[in-house]
Amino acid sequence: MWTSFLIAVVVLLALALVFGGLLGFAAERFRVEGNPLVDQIDSLLPQTQCGQCGFPGCRPYAEAIAQGEAINKCPPGGESTIKAMADLLDVEPQPLDAEHGVEQAKRVAVIREDECIGCTKCIQACPVDAILGAAKHMHTVIESECTGCDLCVEPCPVDCIDMVTLEPNIRTWTWTPPKPNLIATDRQGAST
Amino acid sequence: MTQLWNFAGGIHPPENKHQSTTRSIQQAGIPERLVLPLQQHIGEPAEVVVNVGDQVLKGQVVADVTSGMGVPVHAPTSGTIEAVEQLPVPHPSGMSDWCVVLKPDGEDRWTELSPISDYKLMDREQVLQIIRNAGIAGMGGAGFPTDIKLRPPRDRKVETLILNGAECEPYITADDMTMREHAAEVVSGMQVMAWILRPARCVIGIEDNKPEAIAAMQAAVQGTQIEIAVIPTKYPSGGEKQLIEILTGLEVPSGGIPADVGVMCQNIGTSLAVSRAVFEGKPLISRVVTLTGEALQQPGNVEALIGTPISYLLAQAGLRPEQLNRLVLGGPMMGYTLHSDDVPVVKTSNCVIAATAGELPAPPPEQPCIRCGQCALACPMELLPQQLFWHAKAAEFEKAEHLNLFDCIECGACSYVCPSSIPLVQYYRYAKGEIRQQRAEQLKSDHARERFEARQARLEREQQEKEQRRKERARAAAEAQAKKQAEAEQAAQQGEAVDDRAAKAALVQQALERKKAKAAKTAEAAAATPAPSQETASPDTTGEEQALPDIEALEKQLMQAQGKLDTMQGMLEEARAQQADNVDKLERAVAKNHDRVQRAEQALADARNVLAEQTGSAASE
Questions:
Q1: Hey, are the CB atoms on B430 and A175 less than 8 Å from each other?
Q2: Which of A50, B54, B220, B371 could bridge B187 with an S-S bond, Cβ 3.0-4.6 Å?
Q3: Quick check: B429 and A175 CB within 8 A?
Q4: Exposure string over B182-203, b if 16+ CB within 10 A, otherwise e
Q5: pLDDT by residue for chain A (192 residues), tens digit each?
Q6: Is there a contact between B437 and A174 if contact means CB atoms under 8 Å apart?
Q7: Do residues B162 and B266 touch, judged by C-beta distance below 8 A?
């Protein structure tokens, strides 16, 4: 009777050791560097690097969200980004926190070139190197690279940078959803 | 008899084709102004290659695409380039795009043409280049550059070349009339394309509601390998994927192109344009357009120059403006409403419907979906229109994409059968647009992240380099300090030696100077014997001036040496008094210094003697 008891203990112990070793090996062998959740959140953020969320860039905010920060602090991303993050993190989507700004149409910075004094301050402020120029030479914004983050407007000593809303052109135009059309009976009800 | 297959779904809307087939194709003539949009094809917009005010000939290139995909734009008649500006173009948005405005001179003079008599003697690449330079882009509606389409991927052999003569959409008869009147040209164009592609089978698919076209084409293909397939009338059998399925039984995979299953589809109008480009050397400057609708007195087909304003065509066809309710470009199923009739005919415009209010009434109000499933039965792509509608309406675009939204060909069959009159296609178009926009934004944000990270890395690297330089500088400074200190210590130990050397160097220097002065003087004396005395006086003064500072320096050295000797003797006495262990060293140093002082005194005395001699010799002179 004791032998069978011992056999059971030994077998279970051996199994525990084997699987423990296997798990330990797997944990070492297939270790994931960094936090994959941060990468996923970061890929949802609009990458304007504007800092309106109160963090110095999109990645720091993504890291903070992974640590439990609120997901509604990104005005450039707006509702769609909040929704996507809520889906990812399985939390309730919240309305955009107005404290950090409001959602705006896509904008780009435009330098009024004849007023530019070539101080390079905006070049230093631009997080994506979208401003071209050299000291004492006129600067200009590479429109396709500009994320519309606003960060160059403040440092300009002569206020020659405008944020211009991008109007849709014939190449960026898309179909609008059908207008919510009231059915005939509702329309009668609405008019009276 | 060709074996035919069937495709799922489909509808049978009223054809309304008879109105525009009563007349033969008319020449629309030359309007007062031609507006040539720079982008009439898929790809990059063409760049203008003429200047405002230039005279151009019919068929001359006015804009070309230099980089990327695209085809050139030609002048449809001879005239003057009046402007290059943003003007309304045929587009569902009603927006403007860059256009070249040509004012015809009425002479209609051709530029030099180079027709090919026997294309089979040429290289295939050369023929493709002719097709490209003729500005030919798919004339069925999409406007994909034909020369690029005729270059299928290397690993995809085109087994079947199909010419799409189905023209399934109601009202449109442009291809029908083209086949009736230009059958021989259409066939020869197809032969050129077949020669380029070398398919095993060439087939022209024509719906059975076009008996005249079928007869004309059958006559034209006599003696060729091309077969005519008469297919049953059903909308949308003229859809590329549907026609391929009807004629070959093959399905184009989701997200793929017909070349993936070894098939290529070309349009009737494209074939005509290829024929004209190769055999006549004429670029694509006109096309057949159907003008129809109850608001027109003489509906029919016209051959219009590219760039002809639609208002000009409608006036020719006898438009009754008071009856016009809606102007549609394209067919009633897939076309779109034009915001104005002031837009030009482009390479892809096949039909203009000037509809009265009774003909194409405003869509009835949308009612809730009753889940009847009619749309799923009608869908030729076997999608789930109802599910796609829910997701598009709820802005759940990802789910719509999972249900193969992008396989939707926007044929409108689902909207047509919907008993709740839901504008389903508009929802799908909206969802597709949103998804494309999101993808573009995702790409842009990935790009921005890359740039941001690159900038961060650069700033960090610069910071590190700065730090590195700072550290290096600090180390260099510390080393220099240490060296200096070591030298100072060394000097303190054998300082006299250094001073000794300095004194010797000074002596040598002095001797050299003296010698030089002497040499100069003798030379001067030799030269100056016949010369006046005031001239000889000057080298003397210089000689004295050279000698004098030496004596001063020597005096200084002597003083310094003596001062040092005094301090050292003081230190030695102190050390002796304190019984310090450096007495020996100090004694030796004092002795050395003593010698030095003596030598310096000697040197000074020598120098003084020399000076005395010099002054003496100068005086004797």
A1: yes
A2: B220
A3: yes
A4: bbebbbbbbbbbbebbebebbb
A5: 889 999 999 999 999 999 999 999 999 888 877 778 888 898 889 888 888 888 888 889 999 998 888 888 888 888 888 888 898 888 888 888 888 888 888 889 999 988 899 999 999 999 999 999 999 899 999 998 898 888 899 899 999 999 999 888 888 888 888 876 565 566 555 544
A6: yes
A7: yes
* Boundary of a domain, candidates B314, B331, B355: B355
- CB proximity A185 to B under 8 Å: no
* Rounded CA separation B153/B230 (Å): 30
* Residue B147 contacts residue B69 (beta carbons within 8 Å): no
What's the structural domain count of chain B? 2
Q: Do residues B566 and B590 touch, judged by C-beta distance below 8 A?
A: no
Contact between chains at A127 and B452 (C-beta distance less than 8 A): yes
Amino acid at A65: I
Q: Which two tokens stand for residue A156?
A: 């300009």
Phi, psi of B618 (to 5 degrees): -60, -40
- Picking from A47, A176, A182, the nearest residue to B365 by CB comes out as A182
Range of the domain at B586: 461-526+536-620
Residue B298 to residue B306: CA distance in whole angstroms: 21
Residue B433 in any domain: the answer is no
Spatial separation of the C-alpha atoms in residues A51 and B521, rounded to whole Å: 85
User: Which CATH number is B98's domain given?
Assistant: 3.40.50.11540
- Prediction pTM value: 0.75
For the residues of A153-175, what is the DSSP string, one character each?
Answer: TTT-TT--EEEEEPPP-TTT--P
Cis geometry, peptide bond prior to residue B236 (ω within 30 degrees of 0): yes
> How many other C-beta atoms can be found within 10 angstroms of the C-beta atom of residue A70?
14
**A58 in reach of chain B (CB within 8 A):** yes
Instruction: Out of B326, B355, B384, pick the residue that ends a domain.
Output: B355
Residue to test with chain B: of A38, A174, A176, most B Cβ within 10 A: A174
Assess if residue B453 is contained within a domain: no
d(CA B594, CA B614): 30
Q: What sign does the dihedral B261-B267-B272-B277 (CA atoms) show? A: negative
Q: Which residues neighbour A145 within 8 Å (Cβ) at sequence distance 6 or greater? A: A128, A129, A130, B447, B448, B451
Q: Which letter, b or e, does each residue of B56-66 get, where b requires 16 or more Cβ atoms within 10 Å of its Cβ?
A: bbbbbbbbbbe
B445 CB within 8 Å of a chain A CB: yes
DSSP B58: B
Whether residues A129 and B451 touch (CB distance < 8 A) is answered with yes
Q: Which chain B residue shows the shortest CA-CA distance from A128?
A: B452
The shortest C-alpha distance from A112 to chain B (Å) reads 23
Domains delineated in chain A: 36-100 (1.10.15.40), 107-165 (3.30.70.20)
Question: Quick check: B429 and B336 in contact, CB under 8 A?
Answer: no
How far, in Å, CA of B570 to CA of A161, rounded? 77
Sheet holding B61-64, edge to edge: B47-48, B61-64, B73-74
Tell me how far apart the alpha carbons of residues B476 and B483 are, in angstroms, rounded to a whole number.
10
Q: CB B133: neighbour CB atoms within 10 A?
A: 17
Mutate to test the interface with A, among B95, B451, B459 (most CBs of A within 10 A): B451
Structural domain includes residue B431: no
Q: Give dist(CA B407, CA B381) in Å, integer.
A: 7
In a domain, B59, yes or no: yes
**Whole-number Å distance between alpha carbons of B503 and B602:** 11
